Amino acid sequence: MAQEQKENKSTNVKIIRIKPKKRNISVISIIIFLIISFLFSIGINVLFNSGSKGEEVALSEIVLYISEGNYEEVILKDDMILISQIDKEDSKEIPTKKYALIPQGVDFYSLLSDAGVDIKTLKNDFYQPRLGITFGDIMSFIFLGIGLVLVYILIRNMQKSGGQIMDFGQSKARLLFGKKTGINFNDVAGIDEVKDELTEIVDFLKNPKKYLSIGARIPKGVLLAGAPGTGKTLLARAVAGEAGVPFFHTSGSEFEEMLVGAGASRVRDLFNKARKAAPCIIFIDEIDAVAKKRGTVLHSGAGEQTLNQILVEMDGLEGRENVIILAATNRPDVLDPAILRPGRFDRLVVVPMPDYQGRKEIIQVHAKNKKFEEGVDLDLIAKKTIGYSGADLENLLNEAAIMAAKDDKKKINQGDLLEAYLKVKLGRKKKGEIGEEDIKVTAYHEAGHAIVAKFTKYATPVEQVSIIPRGLTGGVTVYLPEDDKKHIYKDELLASLRSAVGGRASEELFIGRISTGASADIEQATSVAKEMVTQYGMSEKLGMVKYGDIEETKHLGYMYGGGRDFSEKYAEMIDSEIKSLIDTSYADAKKLLSEKKEYVEKLVEMLFRNEVVSKEEFDGIFQD
C-alpha cells in the first residue's frame, strides 16, 4: 500500500497515512483464464477441423479406394489426403469423408504408381496447398490476443507493486494507527499492576529522549503471559492507543506456511515495515505457535527457521529505532530459552486472573453500554464469579442482555444476571419430560453432594442445589468459595474429594443401585487425587517428589503412551495412592450420609417440590 509520511515537529513522531490501493487482477485468475483459453482453443480446432476432415483411416486404405475408383473426390494437402465417397443405404445416397496422414518423406504419387494407378487418368487439380484460415484458427488467434493483453496487464501490475508477484513471503500483519485501535488503559480494568508496568513502555514511545539521555535502554520485548481471556491482546492494543503509534498486529500461526522459508521471509518483511514506521509496536499473539523449544518434538524444522529469524531480527533492533515487540502466550513454559533472555524479551509480565475487586471493575467497564433495572446488584455477580476471567465476565453480561431482549424486556434485571451466571457456568437448561425414576436418582445424587459438603470441615460451601438438567449434567450442586484463595491446603483437597464422591455414595445408600451419573464426579476426584500425589507432594509414601508434568505430557502426547519419567515401581505406588485416597473419601462419605440420613430426606423432598434449592433454603434445613 502506498504510504505518505509527515514529520510532526512537536512530537518527532512520523504519522503514516495509507491510501487505498486499486485492486489488481489476481495472478491466479489470469493463469486459470489462460489455461482455459488454451484448452478451449484446442477444442475448437478439434471440433471444426475433425468435423470437416471426417474419419481418419490408414493411408493404404485411401490408396486402395483410389485404385478401385471408389471415390467421388480426392484432395491432397501436403501431409494429408482426403477422399469423399457416396454410400448407398435404403435407396439413399449418404456422402462420407475419410482422411489419412502422409508420413514425412513419403511421395504420395509414387504410392499411387506402385498401386497401378495411372496418374494421368486422375484429375490433375486434386492437389490443394494448405493456405486459407479455418474458424478454429481464427478462435485461436482471438484467445491468443486476449492472453497477450492479460500478460501485459500483469506485467504493469508487477511494475506498480515493485515486482512482487507472489505475496507468500510478505507479512500478514494488520496495521493500525495509534488512536485507531479504539482502546486505552481506561478500557482495561482489574489488572492495575500490569498497567503500571506497561506505562513505562508508553512513556518511552512518547518521550524516548528522556530515557536515552540518561543511558537507559527500554526493553526491546515484553512478553504477556496469562490464562486465556485475561486481557493480553486488549492490553497490547491499549498500549498502542495510549502511545498513539502504529501498531502491527499478527499471530504466531500466520508465520507458518507450507512453503519452506516463507515464515522467515514474513518475519523479515514485518520488521522492515516496522523500522520504516518507527516508533511503533509489533504485537505477536500466541507466539508459542512459532517460538517453541528447539531440538524437541515441540518444534518443526521450518518452525526453527522462523524462530531463528525472529531472534536475529530482535538482536538487530537498535535502541534508536524505537520498535518494541509485545507478545502474548498462554504457555510460557514451552518457549525457547533464547527468546526469553535479556536483549530480546527482557520483561515477562504475568497477567493474572482478576480478584474480587478486579472483577467488580471489569463488570463496571462492560456494563457501560447496557441498560439495567434499578436495584440490580452487580457486586453479587462479582462475588459469585471466583475464577472467572475478563472474557468470561463480558460473556456473562452479554448472555444476560440476550436473555432480557429475548423476553422483550427493556432492561436487564437481577434474574437475568443470575440465570446467565448459571448458563455460563453449567450450560443452558434442558427442555423435555424427565422420568420419575431419573428425577429420584438425580435428587438423591445431588443431595449426597450437598450434605457431605455441609458436614465436612474445610469443604467449599454450597451455593445452590438443582435437579434441572443443564449442559451435560442431569442436575447440579453449585459450590461457592467464601473468598479468593491463593493457597489450597491438603485438608481442603481431601474435603473436595469427599464432596465429589458423595453423589455416588448417596445412590448406593438410598437407591440401592448405582448409575452412570457419577462419571464427571469420578473424573474430577481422580484428577484431584492424582495432582495431590504427583504434583503437590501430599502422599506420605511417595514424599515431596514431583512425578511427571501433567501439562507437558498432555502437550507432547504422552497421554497416549510413553514419556513417563518414573519407574514401574513408582507407577504402581502412584496408582495405589490415588485409589487409596478415593476409596477412603468414599467410605467417609457413606458413613457421614448414614449418620445424616434425615437431612438427606429433607433436601430430597424440597428438591421434588421446588426443583431448585437456594443457599438460604439449604441452610434453613439445619436450623429446625
Question: Mind sketching the topology for me?
Answer:
Layout: E1 3-8, E2 13-18, H1 27-53, E3 55-56, H2 59-68, E4 73-77, E5 80-89, E6 92-101, H3 108-114, H4 135-160, E7 174-177, H5 192-206, H6 208-212, E8 221-226, H7 232-243, E9 246-251, H8 262-277, E10 280-285, H9 301-316, E11 323-329, H10 337-340, E12 345-351, H11 356-366, H12 378-384, H13 390-406, H14 414-426, H15 436-454, E13 462-466, E14 476-479, H16 490-511, H17 519-534, H18 550-556, H19 568-595, H20 597-610, E15 612-614, H21 615-620
Parallel strand pairs: 3-6, 8-11, 8-12, 9-10, 10-11
Antiparallel strand pairs: 1-2, 4-5, 5-6, 7-9, 13-14, 13-15
Helix pairs in contact: 1-4, 5-7, 8-9, 11-12, 11-13, 13-14, 15-16, 15-20, 16-17, 16-19, 17-19
